[in-house]
Amino acid sequence: MPLVPEATLSARIALIGLPGAGKSVVAPLLAARLGFAHVDLDLGIERDEGVTIAELIRSRGEGAFRALETRALARALEEGAPQGLVVACGGGILEREENRERLGRAAHVIWLVVTPETAAGRMGSAGRDARPLLDGAGVVERLRSLDEARRAEYRRAAHATVDTERRSATEVADLAAATWRERAAWDSSAS
């Protein structure tokens, strides 16, 4: 597990995982349990750019999207919220080294683990259509490919993991809150 310097943990939680892991659904639930604010990076980018992520990637390319995502992550973690912040990250947030470093320094990173099969089922056809990176081969096969490519980075970046299989978003939020409370208690006892 990565070590987070005590001074920089400062009430920031980042949710990572495959598309369909539940990051966007769990973030507001987790934030409510902890009395934190929450932000969804993809929704923020869509609001700022005036187009959906799918339209942005199709018209400007994945590289342009990743640059916007990096800027949105930096802004969210730097501005934060006085009461604390939960950030729902995009599935590919760890593709850039600067994002991996920033998350490692500034947030308690929780990996929401999901199988490709479950992720595909959760997204439904509308969710899959909104994710151009899942275009091409069957969605489950594409998610398997993404899982294989990203799993090692998710594992390295995560301070905690929550298995989302056969769990409701409420249960996942409860487990994620427990990992934060455990970390916060450990940090205060180490001081």
Overall description:
The chain has one domain: Rossmann fold (3-Layer(aba) Sandwich). It contains 9 helices and 5 strands. The protein has helices at residues 6-9, 23-34, 41-49, 53-60, 62-79, 97-106, 116-129, 139-157, 169-190, and strands at 12-16, 37-40, 85-88, 108-113, 160-163. The radius of gyration is 16 Å and the shape is globular. The model is unreliable at 1-9 (pLDDT under 50).
- Going across the biggest sheet, name each strand in turn: 2-3-1-4-5
Q: How many β strands by DSSP? A: 5
Strand content: 5-15%
Number of helices: 9
Overall CATH architecture: 3-Layer(aba) Sandwich
Q: What pattern of helices and strands is seen along the backbone?
A: HEHEHHHEHEHHEH
CATH superfamily: P-loop containing nucleotide triphosphate hydrolases
* Number of self-contained structural domains: 1
Rounded mean pLDDT score? 87
Oligomerization state? single chain
Structural class: alpha/beta
What is the structure about, briefly put?
The chain has 191 residues and is of the alpha/beta class. The protein has helices at 6-9, 23-34, 41-49, 53-60, 62-79, 97-106, 116-129, 139-157, 169-190, and strands at 12-16, 37-40, 85-88, 108-113, 160-163. The two termini are 20 Å apart.
Task: List descriptors.
single chain; Rossmann fold; 191 residues; disordered N terminus; 9 helices; globular
